[in-house]
Specification:
311 residues, alpha+beta, globular, Beta-lactamase, single chain, two-stranded antiparallel sheet, 38% helix
């Protein structure tokens, strides 16, 4: 069944609330794109900057894998209690939980590691369990026409490093890639084949639908989706204190290309405020820390002003 993406509110934020000014400050960051949409009863509003820009969003796409896994739990195809194998056959770069572990663990721990710690080994285990094509089918069902999900993180890294599309160079290849000072045959992270791409419009549409339960048959599945999405560690650093929030951030540092992205939703009183903030840029690695601090401060400023506008 095709779920029509909800029409975004077109009214700008109420005059004098500071959201627009905060967005204008965010817009000064490199290749910035953002959208903030408040579903305030009777007076919904949104503020944006280049919300249709297709950019690299990194691990933000892991929300789709989580949702599809939980849909498969509903359908009885998989279980959160199933023991999943962690070993070199699935091990991937950027895996703070499972990088040095070998054995089995319940699928729920895999899903939590994927969202809470953005563990790429966990991501590939979950993706293999549900199938990349079925994750893409969910993206299409949600009406997200500019969102792209890779076959796996290992196949993504392999492709970016010059391998043929669909080729997995294995854990040994991943280790060589991690140790290399440069990758002569590298491809751009944002491409049309194997990438993690989306727009602020698509990500806001996704969270508005998913967090309303549009893709789940059972109330308990939505509760579990929210429970795990609430674990995403960037949220506590930018969402105003004591407000419920769900989301999943993403980033990359690849051959001088960098990305920060954070889509999600917070609840102000009883009003959902859904958002996405993405920047892409090319520059030296030693400048990433300073840009990240500016990005974090700008996002926190926008969400503070958005909460004030709703409240």
């Amino acid at each position: 069944m095709l779920v029509a993406a909800p029409v975004l509110a077109r009214a700008q934020a109420p005059a004098g609330n500071g959201v627009q000014a905060a967005v204008e400050r965010f817009a000064k960051l490199p290749a910035a794109s953002c959208l903030v949409a408040a579903d305030q009863p009777g007076k919904p509003w949104q503020v944006s900057h280049k919300p249709a820009a297709r950019l690299f969003v990194g691990s933000a796409i892991k929300t789709f894998i989580l949702a599809q896994y939980l849909r498969d739990v509903e359908a009885g195809r998989v279980s959160e209690g199933t023991q999943q194998t962690i070993d070199d056959a699935v091990r991937s770069l950027s895996s703070p939980v499972f990088l040095h572990l070998t054995g089995t663990t319940p699928a729920v721990a895999v899903l939590e590691a994927m969202i809470a710690h953005s563990d790429n080994t966990a991501t590939d285990v979950a993706m293999a369990a549900v199938g990349a094509d079925r994750v893409r089918a969910l993206v299409a069902q949600a009406g997200l026409t500019r969102t792209q999900v890779p076959d796996s993180t290992r196949r993504l890294f392999s492709y970016l490093a010059g391998a043929a599309e669909g080729e997995d160079v294995g854990w040994a290849g991943m280790q060589r890639l991690a140790e290399a000072s440069s990758v002569p045959a590298s491809r751009p992270a944002l491409n049309d084949r194997q990438t993690m791409a989306s727009t602020a419009e698509d990500m806001v549409s996704w969270y508005r639908q998913a967090l309303s339960g549009a893709f789940f048959q059972k109330p308990g599945t939505l509760v579990e989706f929210k429970r795990i999405q609430a674990m995403a560690d960037p949220l506590v650093h930018v969402v105003p204190a004591d407000m419920p929030a769900w989301g999943k951030g993403g980033s990359i540092d690849w051959q001088g290309f960098h990305c920060f992205c954070l889509p999600g939703q917070m609840i102000v009183g009883r009003v959902p405020v859904t958002f996405c903030f993405t920047i892409n840029w090319t520059g030296p690695d030693d400048g990433v820390g300073a840009i990240f601090q500016s990005y974090k401060a700008a996002v926190a400023d926008i969400l503070k002003e958005a909460a004030r506008a709703v409240g």
